[in-house]
């Protein structure tokens, strides 16, 4: 039922009468279904929603039910009733595969960049820079010793004063 459009008896009779009179037998449902199907050319869900908006439709989801709302008349049409739910589900899968594929491509690019770094020796150059010893200025060394002595003395005071436990 996902790919087939539901048509009521009244809609079928109306279409037969209009066709007999030589007029356009399409119903509002048919027209909206065609507009939704045209929106399936979108490459992303955001683009899909934009195309619907340009056609005067707004997408809605309520639980498992998905559909479109005619912005002018506020009439809701379920995608299942329009017969385009199967197409929408396949589009959702395509959109999600596109996001996954983009992640895969980014990972491949990163691996290639790492390979180039290794081949050109950038990694070794970086390691040399990191591991290369550097001199610490004398005043910094003196300040470091002063701080270390201060910490030792403060710990001794904590042990000896009111923090001392008596047995």
Topology:
Elements: H1 9-21, H2 28-39, H3 45-54, E1 57-62, E2 65-70, E3 76-78, H4 79-82, H5 85-120, H6 122-131, H7 138-160
Antiparallel strand pairs: 1-2, 2-3
The assembly state of the depicted protein chains is single chain
User: pLDDT below 50 for ≥5 consecutive residues: which ranges?
Assistant: none
Average pLDDT rating: 81
Instruction: Write down the Rg.
Output: 35 Å
For the biggest sheet, the summary is: 3 strands, antiparallel
Helix content: 55-70%
The secondary-structure element order is: HHHEEEHHHH
The number of helical elements comes to 7
Strand content: 5-15%
Number of domains: 1
Strand arrangement, largest sheet?
1-2-3
What's the N-to-C terminus distance? 84 Å
What does the overall shape look like? elongated
The count of DSSP E runs of length 2 or more, i.e. the number of strands, is 3
Structural class: mainly alpha
Overview in brief:
By secondary structure, the protein is mainly α. It has 7 helices and 3 strands.
Care to describe what's here?
This protein has 167 residues and is mainly alpha-helical. The protein has one domain (1-134). The chain is 65% helix and 9% strand. It has helices at 9-21, 28-39, 45-54, 79-82, 85-120, 122-131, 138-160; strands spanning 57-62, 65-70, 76-78.
Task: Name the features.
single chain, 3-stranded antiparallel sheet, 65% helix, 167 residues, 7 helices
């Amino acid at each position: 039922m996902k790919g087939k459009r539901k048509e009521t008896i009244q809609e079928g009779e109306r279409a037969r009468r209009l066709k007999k009179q030589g007029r356009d037998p399409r119903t509002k449902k048919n027209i909206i279904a065609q507009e939704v199907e045209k929106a399936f050319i979108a490459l992303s869900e955001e683009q899909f929603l934009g195309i619907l908006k340009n056609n005067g439709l707004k997408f809605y989801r309520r639980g498992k039910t998905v559909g479109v709302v005619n912005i002018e008349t506020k009439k809701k049409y379920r995608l299942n009733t329009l017969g385009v739910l199967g197409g929408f589900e396949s589009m959702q899968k395509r959109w999600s595969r596109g996001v996954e594929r983009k992640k895969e491509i980014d990972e491949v690019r990163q691996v290639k960049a790492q390979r180039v770094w290794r081949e050109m020796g950038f990694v070794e150059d970086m390691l040399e820079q990191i591991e290369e010893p550097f001199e610490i200025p004398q005043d910094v060394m003196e300040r470091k010793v002063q701080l270390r002595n201060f910490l030792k003395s403060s710990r001794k005071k904590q042990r000896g004063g009111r923090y001392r436990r008596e047995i």
